[in-house]
Amino acid sequence: MSLSPPDTRFSLILRLRDVADHAAWDEVLEVYGPLVFRCARQRGLQAADAEDVVQEVFSAVARSVEQWLNQAQRGRFRSWLLGITRNIAINVLTRAPRGGVGHGGDVGLAELTAMPDPDGVNSRLFDREFEWQVYHWAASRVRDSVKAVTWEAFHLTHLEGLTAQETADRLGISLGNVYIARSRVMSRLKEVVRQFEVTE
Question: Is the distance from CB of 56 to CB of 64 less than 8 angstroms?
Fold first, then answer.
């Protein structure tokens, strides 16, 4: 599906200054938590260590979001988050391993942590992961707000690659209803994704 990756809306980020604002933190964690986890796993961490990274990243965000907000040239929230994730993942990698030093030992670890990010490759991967995660976040909301056949018509045509006629035949609905369902779901997805856009 082709939705351009939005930036996190500024009003939501402002709310992160209040650690007691559970709704804001839940929303950010729902989208960014899996993203940070996958980023940590891609750095070579085991699942348990990647979970630790997620906790440490969002603790760091809670401690420093106010300072980040006060920067005149702060850039995008997810770029800042990627930087924190990289640093914490490296810290976890350089800690004394739970089971001793593995193959390659300290030399391999030093090479891994010193690897550059040529041409912003990691940033682009993070952006693609973010786009996919926002889609899942939006899709879970839209799927629960439309009829099952409406969602299935969208899913079959947009994600499974079936033609509108094949979808109509499979679901036992008219061709017109397939087009209407697909359009309705796309509109709702765009509307929900827009909730994550910057309103600054």
Answer: no
- Name the helix (H) or strand (E) containing 192: helix 175-194
With a CB cutoff of 8 Å and minimum separation 6, the contacts of 130 are: 5, 31, 32, 35, 78
> How many CB atoms sit inside 10 A of residue 39's CB?
24
pTM of the full structure: 0.59
Report all structural domains of the chain as residue ranges with CATH numbers, in order of start.
Answer: 10-136 (no CATH), 146-195 (1.10.10.10)
The answer to whether 138 and 186 have CB atoms below 8 angstroms apart is no
For the segment 45-73, what is each residue's pLDDT rounded down to a tens digit?
888 988 999 999 999 999 998 988 888 88
Residue 166 sits at φ, ψ, to 5 deg, of: -60, -40
